[in-house]
C-alpha cells in the first residue's frame, strides 16, 4: 500500500499512535518518504502535538526510544515474539545507509547496557556509526552500575572504549563501588589496564567506605595503587560518620590510614552518635596523641549534638577528669 499521499495528520497517527509494531513502522518508514521525514524529525508541518513537547520536537528520538528504550526492553522479554520484533526492527533500521545515527543512539546503547541486554548491545556495537565512548562512556558506566557482567565484558573488549574516559562524571569503578553489589564487576574493572583506581583522588575507595561496602574496601586496599589516606583520610572519616563499624575496622587495619589526621573521623562518629565506632577509635594507640584543643573541640560539638555519654567516654579515654565549661556546652553537664 502506498501511503505517501496520505494527509500529514494521518502519517503522524501511523508513526506515533503505538498501534503498529516497531517492525511495521520501520518497514513503512522505508516505503514512505513522508513517513520517513516525520520519523527523522524533518516533518515540521502539523507535527504530532506530543512530539512538540519532547526534545524540542525531535521526532527521530521518538523512534529511537521506541526501538531501544528501557520501556521497550522491559516489555520485550528475551525469547518472546515481541522481543524478536524489536530486534528485527532495529536491524532493519540500522541497515539503511541513509539513516543518520545522531548522539542519542549512544543513549540507546547505554540503556541497553544498563538493562543487561547483550543481544542489543552486540547489534549496536557492530555499527561503526555508534560511538561507545560518547557521553563519558555512559554505556560502560551503566553496565557497571547495574552489575551486568556479560555486557560489561563486551564493552571492555571493544577496542574503541576507554572505561576511564568519563568527562566530568564519576568513573565506572567509582560508580560500581557506589551501586553495584556484584563483586565480579569490581574485579573486572581492576583487572583492566585502562582503569585507574586512583582516579579522582581515590574516589573509588572513598565511595565504597561511605556506603559501608566492606568487601569492596578490602578488595581495593589489596590493590597497591589505591591510597586510602587520600583527601585527608576521608575514607575512614565517611565510614565513621555513617557508623559502619566493620568498614572502620578494615581501614584501621591498614597502616596508611590515620584516623587522627585531624579530628574529622572522631568528630563525625561522636557527633553522629555512633558509640561503637567511637570506642573503636579511642582504643587505637594513636588516640593518645590527640591534642587538648582538638579534644575539647570534639567533646564540645558532641555535647551540642546531645551525645553526652559519648563525650564523657572520650574524656575518660583521654585520661582526664576535666569537663567543658558551660560556655562551651549549653546542654546538660558531662
From TrEMBL:
Signal peptide limits: none
InterPro entries from the UniProt entry: Ankyrin_rpt (IPR002110), Ankyrin_rpt-contain_sf (IPR036770)
Record keywords: ANK repeat, Repeat
Domain of life the protein comes from: Eukaryota
Entry protein name: Uncharacterized protein
